[in-house]
Amino acid sequence: MIPLDPARLRDAAVELAREAGAILRQGFGRAHHPEHKGRIDLVTEYDRRAEKLLLERIRTRFPGHAVLAEESGAHAVPGSTVRWIIDPLDGTTNFAHNYPFFGVSIAAELEGRLVAGAVFDPVREEMFSAAEGQGATLDGGPLRVSDVERLEDALLVTGFPYDVREHPELILPHFHAFLVRAQGVRRDGSAALNLCYLACGRFDGFWERHLSPWDMAGGVVIVREAGGTVTNYTGGPWRLEGRQILASNGRLHEEMKSVIASVATSGVP
Ligand code: IPD
Ligand code: CA
Ligand code: CA
């Protein structure tokens, strides 16, 4: 068997994301009856169907690989060198309301290193992907972050986590601080696509707290390979389990970091 390298893992992620995306596309525009995982945290039949398909495909094609998937959790395989990190539907609230902004996110870790990612938007049929050392692409064409240098000229994006009702004080001060400094701030409901839009220069910076590994993993590989910078809120190393992200085109990173530092919160991630 040919050993798996980042490029082959990316190609597999692209195929998987496209297939799961087709399921979401079929479901888009229908009447949904989502269940509640939390007070405002929804899950639809399509989150589950897309995840089931991905798990089946990975089991058949890569029986020795581990998986971490949002709806079913960890599927450990002793001795595995690869772990897939899957968000079968990122943007479930949008999807449940038939708002056309959501996607599938798939990433692969090789020996504990995040090396490949694919994020597919089945409405616009945009496939973002990247492999460590190989650059990032949108539908096969190379991607690069923007060259915006000042927050004043930047279009930023963020998200509000599902615990926003319990902890608005951890969200609103950052939102306020960026809102009065940036050219514009968006909140459009899919962290995975937000990262991809940063990678291709549609956004210049992104911050969010209380995210899970599957929200970030695929998009982080894509941003890094597109020349962007990804850290935690204080500029330290970004961690998959770290629950927060500050990502930018690189040029804006210091300024974004100092805006975050200027806002006092309790330090809860
Ligand atoms: C959510 C989206 C949203 C972000 C939330 C995530 P889900 O993922 O990425 O943009 O603000 O924090 O949980 O639940 O739609 O997969
Ligand atoms: Ca998600
Ligand atoms: Ca999800």
What distinguishing features does this structure have?
2 domains; binds D-MYO-inositol-1-phosphate; binds calcium ion; 8-stranded mixed sheet; Fructose-1,6-Bisphosphatase, Chain A, domain 1; alpha+beta; D-Maltodextrin-Binding Protein, domain 2; single chain; 269 residues; 26% strand; 5-stranded mixed sheet
Can you give a write-up of this model?
- The protein folds into 2 domains: 137 residues, Fructose-1,6-Bisphosphatase, subunit A, domain 1 (Fructose-1,6-Bisphosphatase, Chain A, domain 1, 2-Layer Sandwich), CATH 3.30.540; 115 residues, D-Maltodextrin-Binding Protein, domain 2, CATH 3.40.190.80.
- The protein is built from 7 helices and 15 strands.
- The mean pLDDT is 95.
- The radius of gyration is 18 Å and the shape is globular.
- The protein is α+β, with helices and mostly antiparallel strands and 269 residues long.
- The protein has an 8-stranded mixed β-sheet with strand order 4-3-5-6-7-8-9-10. A 5-stranded mixed β-sheet has the order 12-11-13-15-14, sandwiched between helices.
- The structure holds D-MYO-inositol-1-phosphate and calcium ion (CA) (2 copies).
- The site of D-MYO-inositol-1-phosphate (IPD) has 13 residues, from strand 5.
